[in-house]
Records
---
Amino acid sequence: MEFSTTGTKTVDEVEVWLSSVIEDSRKSNGIELFGLHHKEKSVFLGYCGLTLFPDLDGKTEIVIGYRLIRKHWGNGYACEAAFAVRDYAFTELKLQRLVALIEPTNIRSICVAKKIGMTYEKEVLLAEYDYPDHLYSMKNAAISA
């Protein structure tokens, strides 16, 4: 949560947020967040998934996002999860486009976006921010061809 505008959450806040995410995912047609767990160690790592932004700079966009617990940074988990979610979005959901909103100084997140095939598109100023995020995007090659 290094780049979160709202800071670190308490356990109670996370439980309330997670309940709302689970409820929203029931009616999302596959646009949802997924918990990340280490395969061998059964350890929770964070989450990765898709979020619908109905008005992102005047367009409806599906945003891929990933958040990992700090002690799990630098192990390739975000890339592994982002590749899986990207493939799910394009193969299963048949989405035409994915975007990522990234704090300009978040080098790790930018690297993940680039590794899964995204490129910088433009700056986007969200309502609750006083500085722009960078929008990275990619198109579904199977549909775009």
---
Amino acid sequence: MVDLQSILQGHRSKSAHREVHDKGGDETSKLKPSLSEIPDLFFDRIIVDFKLSRMEILVLMYIYRRVWCYPNLHRDYGISPMMSHTEMAKVLHLPIEDVYSALRKLEEHEFIKTIRAGQYFVRRYFTKSNDEELDQNYSDFDV
């Protein structure tokens, strides 16, 4: 039978683990917890019906959050601020080719529409039919 005291001696506390990371200047230790509002529709219908890949989900959520969850002057129109594809790839830890592939696939599904390189129209409820069903309009932005 294993001695409880020997198990406890081998266990490191979480607070000691956090202190090591805080002293190391780890970039993630500087992040403050926050919340982003993503419609349940995404989890209930979009992922299930469209069978999105991991990369497509990452890119869609990155752009969606830039439009709908962060301060954005063009939010009423569903348009993202200008973004760098290279920066997006870096933040998502994806090769740039995978980001471009995911963007093309998302445009095929009509979740996003390119306004110009690095700027996108993103539907609030992901598809035109969902937008219409949920009375989402875009302040006369013609899509």
---
Amino acid sequence: MPARPKAVVSWSSGKDSAFALWEARRGGELDVVALLTTVTDSFARVSMHGVREELLERQATALGLPLRRVRIPHPCPNETYERAMAAEVRSLEASGVSRMVFGDLFLRDIREYRESRLASTGIRPVFPLWDRPTAELARTMVDSGLEAYLVCVDPRLLPRRFAGRRYDARLLEELPEGVDPCGERGEFHTFVADGPMFSHRVPVEVGETVEREGFVFTDLKPSGGSA
């Protein structure tokens, strides 16, 4: 029997990448060997989501996967980001990785960008959640036992008061009309603390909410408790 292709998951620390990982593992066709995350070095936080690196590490432990971190500066011009990612892709290829799993849902331009950046490499992109209706997917996430929190909100698209809230059935009911229930258009980003893809919960507590560079961030802090 041929060996399964080795894959890494593009890991944002949020719900979509978590469910993409879950689907990739459940499908059984890929050997998921690592998580790949972009970290803003000066803040020691997951880029865009603003999640503390310590929580990222705890997620990786709960998922039983090593972390591969692409460290970028702040601010980070696109060419700097692309150089850093290209170097990481070359390293992944050298280690035998031939697939990269993404949690994208329906934004064609984002998918095409990822495909174009990998086209000249030996790594193929995989999109396990692509084109799934997001209202249905959101309910599936909540019903699965997912525990996630909104850590970043774009106040131009979603009221600030949603920052820090748990991603649950009540939140889905209260989302304003026109907001994608999975936040696929950038309305919000999440951090996952538990779910079917985890071996154990990552304990967190909700900290302060601040506005920075036009976005609203809620800081999640590691907690010593358990589920």
---
Amino acid sequence: MDETTAMSGHNLIDHFGIIEQIEDDVALVKINSESACAACHAKGVCGAADQEEKYLDIPLHGVDYNKGEPVHVQVARHLGFRAVALGYIYPFLLLMAVLISLTAFGANELRAGIFALLSLLPYYLILFLLRKRIKTTFTFSMKKIQTVQ
């Protein structure tokens, strides 16, 4: 099974993870975030493959888990799209809008480019200031991996 798959019928994004630590009612789960080419058989000669470990705090909701236990970490697919929009699409649209507007009003390209890049600073500052509110909208859940005995 692929590590990043959509659960059919549930509209979820699913990652394989391992519980690194449990404190109070929260588990620290390590997942490996892979690009699409990371699973390719030619990744050793390509050099484009990247894999990064990420850590998530996931509430246990009273379910008994153990340190080192493999789990499925799940998030709703629409939340994945929202994260991509907040991190990539909206900043790109802001950058392009400022760049096109300034060049249309006669600013030279260098100045328009610099101001377009600087326009991203308030955007990311606002995201940073709202990080706790944003964090509450991105809820992850865990499922135990069913083992065949």
